[in-house]
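User: For my dataset I need records formatted as: sequence, then structure tokens, nothing else. Please produce one.
Assistant:
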Amino acid sequence: MEITGIISALIVGLIVGALGRLVVPGKQHLPIWLTLILGIVAALLGGWIAAMLGVANFFLVLLVQVLVAAGIVYLADGLYSKNARSTA
């Protein structure tokens, strides 16, 4: 991945993290900074998955990234809320 791809993944990752948080139903216990970091990870991972599937359309890549972000936010929220309850 070129440097421009990494920079665009960082920028798109912030948006994808916010969208992933909106897609997951219910109240999330994650802080917003963690959601944005997870969005960046999801953008990189989703872009890689889309490339492996041969998807070249920007909107389909974005859809894959949002779905990956929603999955990551959902899993992280479950782990985060479980840890937050056990320490309280």
